[in-house]
Design a protein that fits this description.
Elements: H1 11-29, E1 32-37, E2 42-45, H2 47-52, H3 66-69, H4 75-81, E3 85-92, E4 95-105, E5 111-120, H5 127-150, H6 165-180, E6 184-187, H7 194-203, E7 212-216, H8 222-230, H9 248-251, E8 256-260, H10 267-279, E9 281-282, E10 291-292, E11 296-301, H11 305-310, H12 316-322, E12 325-328, H13 339-354, E13 360-361, H14 363-371, H15 377-390, E14 396-397, H16 429-448, H17 452-459, H18 463-472
Parallel strand pairs: 6-11, 6-12, 7-8, 8-11, 13-14
Antiparallel strand pairs: 1-2, 1-5, 3-4, 4-5, 9-10
Length: about 475
């Protein structure tokens, strides 16, 4: 129960006494106090503040514009907008002061002046507050930096390992696509490097300094896909974030949005995506506000989109909108000439990640890997190399190390017969490997018209090694 106010004290009296007590407290504890009228002229200043400002007496400042005495004062700003500035740091005579400014208003609410208080002449008194503020600023800056790194590309076009003619042509097309700032459609089997190439195209484009945002459509439930794309307005539905949430298009504004496995997109979302690509605007779920965005889309799929269109599972208008600049990534079996370079690159990565010694491939291992069909492409190759390295202590990996990892039927070779072959059909492994090497060299020479330099690049070996093999297999006279 509130205690009744004594009859001898009315509310106005209490307020007057309270204000006077507060002013006396500020005057005693602060480093300086002053008052200005509604024209910004100094009407009163205490002795302490006058002395700090280098004045002989308070009377010397009276009637002067506050800026004449304190050049960087913001008292006039308080008078003009009627809003207080509760905490500010101001430099006076090369010394920082923590100051507070409040407006003075009459009974009608009109601003008739302002009061200023220099609270502290040493910032050390605010050290706990300043330290906490600095700590929060540091944490915010770090978080923003980490987020910016996550939103930028991790690879360049040169990260796509390959020296074969088909790989060199692929990288040439990717660099050309980077300069055109149009929609790109990456087509290829799983594991061929579509995401890596999308990163590279963005990094070589004029949008490189802006976000690169990727979304795997196959990994997002259909019911959440629209929210992931377009965002959710605050309070759009029960359980939604009260502040709302930005979608991938908004996050990627100014940069690139990578749509992986676009062939798995539901028809309903396809229609909305088409509108965004045409109009460059989105409407978050639960909102009536249209937001303009500037996003370049790079789409990728391992499906035959033409077949999906024929089956009615993919919109033809969206297909033509995405298929502006198609780039086909060849499977690994069509660029066997890159195998040695890829293996060396992957073995370096595996050694760095696992801490194990870096493995090397013997000729028999190279021949074994070259004969495999690689349905999983580079991703399968990495897995095979890592498994082989885990299963042996030897630095050099041989064909035997891949025998159980790469079964013959997975490589497109005829399955082994159920009955064991006759003894006279079994040959030494070195002889069989040499025969396979001869066949590959002959085939490469035929495809390049006898060009030794190009043949060496296709096979992933040096020209010196090629000449050595030609002499060893007595193929020099043939070419």
């Amino acid at each position: 129960m509130k205690t009744p106010i004594a009859a001898s004290w009315d509310v106005d009296s209490i307020l007057r006494v309270g204000m006077q007590s507060l002013l006396d407290l500020f005057d005693d504890s602060c480093e300086g106090t002053l008052a200005v009228d509604d024209h910004g002229r100094i009407a009163w200043i205490n002795d302490k503040y006058a002395a700090f400002l280098g004045l002989k007496s308070p009377e010397e400042a009276l009637g002067k514009a506050v800026e004449e005495v304190i050049p960087n004062s913001r008292m006039r700003e308080v008078i003009q907008n009627g809003k207080p500035i509760l905490l500010d740091i101001m430099m006076i005579r090369d010394q920082p002061l923590v100051v507070m400014r409040i407006p003075l208003k009459d009974d009608a609410g009109k601003v008739i002046g302002a009061l200023g208080f220099a609270l502290y002449d040493r910032l050390q008194r605010l050290k706990p507050l300043v330290s906490k503020f600095a700590e929060l600023n540091w944490a915010l800056a770090n978080t923003q930096k980490e987020l910016a790194q996550l939103r930028h590309t991790k690879y360049s076009i040169s990260s796509f390992v390959g020296v074969s003619p088909v790989s060199l042509e692929l990288k040439h097309r990717a660099r050309r696509a980077a300069q055109l700032d149009t929609t790109v459609l990456l087509l290829g089997e799983t594991g061929t490097g579509k995401e890596l190439l999308a990163h590279g195209i963005h990094a070589a484009s004029g949008r490189a300094g802006k976000p690169f945002v990727g979304i795997n459509i196959a990994a997002v439930p259909e019911t959440l896909l629209e929210a992931e794309f377009f965002g959710v307005a605050a309070g759009a539905y029960t359980g939604a974030d009260r502040k709302g949430r930005d979608g991938k298009f908004k996050i990627a504004d100014g940069g690139t949005l990578f749509l992986d496995e676009v062939g798995d997109m539901p028809l309903q979302v396809q229609a909305k995506l088409l509108r965004v690509l045409q109009e460059q605007e989105i409407e978050p779920l639960g909102s009536n506000t249209i937001i303009k965005v500037d996003v370049r889309v790079i789409a990728a799929t391992s499906h035959d989109l033409k077949q999906l269109v024929a089956e009615g599972r993919f919109r033809s208008d969206l297909y033509y909108r995405l298929n502006v600049l198609p780039i086909v990534l060849p499977p690994l079996r069509e660029r066997v000439g890159d195998l040695d370079a890829l293996c060396e690159h992957l073995l370096e990565q595996i050694a760095a990640r696992t801490g194990m010694p870096q493995r090397e491939l013997t000729p028999s291992a190279r021949a074994c890997l070259a004969a495999h069909r690689w349905p999983g492409n580079v991703r399968e190759l990495r897995n095979a190399l890592e498994q082989a390295g885990m299963l042996t202590d030897s630095i050099a990996l041989t064909a035997e190390d891949f025998a159980t990892i790469l079964p013959p039927d997975a490589g497109g070779v005829e399955p082994a017969a159920p009955i064991a072959p006759a003894i006279d059909q079994i040959r030494p492994l070195g002889e069989a490997v040499a025969e396979l090497e001869q066949k590959m060299i002959r085939s490469a020479l035929a495809s390049t018209g006898g060009n030794k330099a190009l043949t060496a690049r296709m096979l992933g070996i040096s020209r010196a090694t090629l000449y050595q093999k030609l002499a060893e297999f007595r193929l020099v006279s043939e070419n």
